[in-house]
């Protein structure tokens, strides 16, 4: 048994040395002619070797792509396609990773690796989400793709991770609304700031941004002299986040005006408050 393992390892190493002459700095005609002499499995194994040992995942992509080109619709081509998506993702070639993952989903929708392909597709968007200030188009695409993992493959090993990332991406969108709202608030554009904070309260109410959004609504409405709305925002904040420092701040501001955090008047915030009391809030 030990001798057979040593022999197998020696043969694999020799194969990698033979194929090394076709190294993936690019897919030239000479490279392709050289690879024509090898089986799909041999080329695939070379791709795995490059992925494990090379500092450039692009080298592995070349070999996996050649498997698909030389042996289309084979079992090895199918495996190579998912590895193209993975290798491109590791190389941070996100657009190429999405392309390979989508081709896998389109070609092999019922395959057991389709869930992983969908997850890689979602990650290719998610991993491009960075600072709040950037355009949020990628965040929306990440949410859509993560939702596909959660809904289409709820029992897969990737569903839980997709849920966690979905919540983080959702929070990211809310943070963007907060950033813009604070910008308007600091410059005295109270109506514009209220519109942004309202979006957070109504559409992103399960995110970590909601307590601050309610505090900023208190501030903005007090600045406009709309005390009913300010008091109601404070009441919602106290009901859901009484231990939050945002509530303490809102309470001090209301008391400084001789006001209490309580639902008053008939406005969009009192509607939210009524929904909350009826158990349909958060």
TrEMBL record:
Alphabetical list of Pfam families matching this protein: YfiO
The protein's UniProt keywords, in alphabetical order, are:
Cell outer membrane, Lipoprotein, Membrane, Palmitate, Signal
Give the principal location in a single coarse category. Answer: membrane
Claim: RNA-binding is one of the keywords in the record: no
Location(s), subcellular: Cell outer membrane
- UniProt topology in membrane: Lipid-anchor
**Domain Outer membrane lipoprotein BamD-like: where?**
39-233
Segment forming the signal sequence: 1-30
Cross-referenced InterPro entries: BamD, BamD-like, TPR-like_helical_dom_sf
Q: Which family does it belong to?
A: Belongs to the BamD family.
Question: Subunit structure, briefly?
Answer: Part of the Bam complex.
Q: What does this protein do?
A: Part of the outer membrane protein assembly complex, which is involved in assembly and insertion of beta-barrel proteins into the outer membrane.
Q: What is this protein called?
A: Outer membrane protein assembly factor BamD
Provenance organism: Paracoccus aerius
């Amino acid at each position: 048994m030990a001798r057979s393992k040593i022999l197998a390892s020696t043969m694999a190493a020799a194969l990698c040395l033979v194929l090394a002459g076709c190294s993936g700095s690019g897919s030239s005609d000479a490279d392709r002619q050289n690879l024509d002499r090898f089986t799909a499995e041999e080329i695939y194994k070379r791709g795995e070797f490059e992925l494990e040992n090379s500092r450039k995942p692009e080298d592995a992509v070349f070999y996996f792509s050649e498997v698909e080109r030389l042996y289309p619709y084979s079992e090895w081509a199918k495996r190579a396609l998912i590895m193209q998506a993975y290798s491109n993702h590791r190389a941070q070639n996100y657009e190429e990773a999405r392309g390979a993952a989508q081709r896998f989903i389109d070609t092999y929708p019922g395959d057991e690796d389709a869930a992983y392909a969908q997850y890689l597709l979602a990650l290719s968007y998610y991993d491009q989400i960075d600072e709040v200030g950037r355009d949020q188009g990628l965040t929306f695409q990440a949410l859509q793709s993560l939702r596909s993992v959660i809904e289409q493959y709820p029992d897969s090993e990737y569903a839980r991770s997709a849920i966690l990332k979905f919540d983080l991406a959702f929070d990211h969108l809310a943070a963007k609304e907060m950033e813009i709202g604070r910008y308007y608030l600091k410059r005295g554009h109270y109506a514009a700031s209220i519109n942004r904070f309202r979006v957070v309260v109504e559409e992103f109410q399960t995110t970590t941004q909601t307590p601050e959004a309610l505090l900023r609504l208190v501030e903005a409405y007090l600045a406009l002299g709309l005390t009913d709305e300010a008091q109601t925002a404070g009441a919602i904040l106290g009901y859901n986040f009484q231990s939050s420092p945002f509530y303490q701040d809102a309470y001090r501001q209301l008391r400084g005006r001789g006001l209490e955090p309580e639902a008053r008047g008939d406005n969009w915030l009192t509607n939210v408050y009524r929904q909350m009391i009826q158990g349909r809030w958060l």
